[in-house]
Amino acid sequence: MAAALEKETIRGGGFLLQESVPAQIFTPEDFTEEQIMIGQTADEFMDKEVVPNHERLEEKDLELQRKLIRDAADLGFINASIPEKFGGLQLDHVSQMLIAEKISGQASFATGFGATSSIGLLPIVFFGTEEQKAKYLPKIGSAEWISAYCLSESSSGSDALNAKTTARLSEDGQHWILNGEKMWITNGGFADVFIVFAKVDGEHFTGFIVERNDPGFSNGNEEHKLGQRGSSTTPIPLVDCRIPKDRLLGEIGKGHLIAFNTLNFGRLKMGAGAIGGAKRALAQSAKYSAERHQFKRPIASFGAIKYKLAEMLTRIYAVESAVYRTSGLIEAREETIDIHNPAEVLKAVEEYAIECAILKVAGTEALFYAADENVQIHGGNGFTEDYPAEGIYRDCRVNRIYEGTNEINRLLIPGQLVRRAMKGGLPLFAAAMKLQEELLAGPSFDIDDDDSPLARERKLAANAKKVAIMLLGSAAQKFREGLAEQQMVLSWTADVIIDSFLMDSVIGRTTKMIAKSGEEKNSHAIEVTRLFTHDAINRIEIAGRNALAAIAEGDELRTLLAALKRFTKQDPINTATIREKLADKVVEQRGYIF
After folding, report:
1. Can you list the alpha helix ranges (DSSP code H) found in 27-121?
2. Contact 431/511 with Cβ under 8 angstroms?
3. pLDDT of 215-271, one tens digit each?
4. Could you check whether 256-407 and 408-573 share the same CATH topology?
5. What is the pLDDT of residues 374-427, one digit of tens each?
């Protein structure tokens, strides 16, 4: 990261409570030469080595997958998150996100690679003993060994802590004996090392390291999946699986810390990977719509197609802005700690668990939108295997399920904000009280003479945050301890928070671009920002109305709805013209334009 860059330093979730300073927000325009080179190397690797082997990979050629993962390791893509002490590169988070974004170009490979380089590796990085790290990290980092992460079970689903797999000490006290079955394990058919969660004596949720050759270990048959068909996904039955006592990972009963903190990393990387997948879908759509003619015209000239291309572009820009902003936040946090201390690095990422959940939801849903519209733009051809559109559509569907379903993540976002506020970590309730006083005072009639670029959008973003605070404060006051059971209210509130963070990130990024090189050179970024903000406020109004109607009634409801109307009021803009301009540029460049 450029040394001259002032870095944004706010607490996790703090974006709701303070005004952002665009100059301090990290954006893709701030990539260093080294980071750009890392991204280009990953891009070239995918285009030259992985994508040409698409058909073989989709036929589940696991030997080829292992070879390609080893080739990726030779380029340092797995070592990126391993400490230097154990042969790793310990790259910054931005570089790690760039790798995740670029590696997403072939879903089956990306899934296997992600399992071994992220969730199958990081538990050892952050919770392993020195001996465990010395044994496993160099081998996983070089892809001599492939790793897997075994959390899910058929009976527990999203309720991971309800696992039935058990662990008990052998009579001689020298081995752990594991019994149970893990489900939907990526790399299950060929991995060498497995991070397995089980309950010690049926009670204490705990992590373990299991190797393929351990007695009692096996993997079941490969699952026949809707998408990502080339990746290995199997159940892992454990029948009196016997492992040495020193393979306990972390502390007994503290497995939830391993599982949930690992998922924070996974969600952040899923946001980055979603960007890469959506960009490829957009490029396919742009190319096809330019070359496909109907009624003696390229279909890219039709307004209905332009709408889709512009919307895909806008959603990608928004998620990309938020992903790299969050990476910058984590890096800024890490500058205040000892990065050689895994526990402190873990806390730095955990601080932004809310943002990680936002990125997982926003990223996977933006990708699915792009994939769906890519099929639609291809028409009947998009429904056949002759074109790659159908494959992207199938492959990305599971993203809204694993690493915590999007429904679970939506509940986590407002839930964690309220919990942090109750513990004194965020002055959320003070902000809600201040907002209540503002509402009682009535609307201000101060003349708004701010005519700077995106002034309107900045005001709308500030109002969006007020809506989020109003919903969080009202819901916490109404439901108190029962708030966790109000899943619809929490989900609507989450949607408001998600759009608020994306708006804030987009506006900060574009404002920073304008300050650096002027309005004319950034006209398309300005149009994207205006379009996203306009539509996001409309979505926020709908979600807010639904949530408030479930929270309040009578005069209280009328007062809250009046405030919502005031906060979401905006003058209409000609979004059709904006979309036409953006779509034309996408077609001209055959893909993403930033």
Report:
1. 33-45, 54-58, 62-74, 93-103, 107-114
2. no
3. 999 999 999 999 999 999 999 999 999 999 999 999 999 999 999 899 899 999 999
4. yes
5. 999 999 999 999 999 999 999 999 999 999 999 999 999 999 999 999 999 999
Pick the CATH number of 408-573 from 1.20.140.10, 3.40.720.10, 1.10.3210.10, 1.10.101.10: 1.20.140.10
Q: Collect all residues with Cβ–Cβ distance below 8 Å to 414 and sequence separation of at least 6.
A: 471, 472, 475, 490, 493, 494, 497
Query: What beta strand segments (E) does 187-287 contain?
Result: 193-200, 204-211, 233-244, 248-249
pLDDT tens sequence across 284-312 = 999 999 999 999 999 999 999 999 999 99
pLDDT over 90 for what percent of the chain?
A: 91
Domain 256-407 has CATH 1.20.140.10: yes
Rg of the chain over all Cα atoms, to the nearest angstrom: 24
Q: Measured between alpha carbons, how far apart are the two ends of the chain, in Å?
A: 19
What's 452's DSSP letter?
A: S
> What's the pLDDT at 43?
96
Residue with tokens 């197609």: 305
What CA–CA distance (Å, rounded) separates 558 from 18?
A: 27
- What 3-state class would DSSP assign to 180? strand
Give the domain ranges of the chain: 14-145, 148-254, 256-407, 408-573
The Cα–Cα gap between 412 and 359 comes to 12
- 489: Cβ contacts below 8 Å, ≥ 6 apart: 471, 475, 479, 483, 547, 550, 551
* Residue 3 banded pLDDT, cuts 50, 70, 90: very low
Q: What positions carry a catalytic annotation?
A: 403
The closest alpha carbon to 99, from 117, 119, 115, belongs to 117
Q: Which residues contact 258 (CB under 8 A, 6 or more apart)?
A: 123, 126, 127, 195, 197, 207, 249, 250
CATH of the domain spanning 14-145: 1.10.540.10
| The pTM of the whole model exceeds 0.90 | yes
> Which of the four pLDDT bands, split at 50, 70 and 90, describes residue 273?
very high
Question: What's the fold here for domain 148-254?
Answer: Butyryl-CoA Dehydrogenase, subunit A; domain 2 (2.40.110)
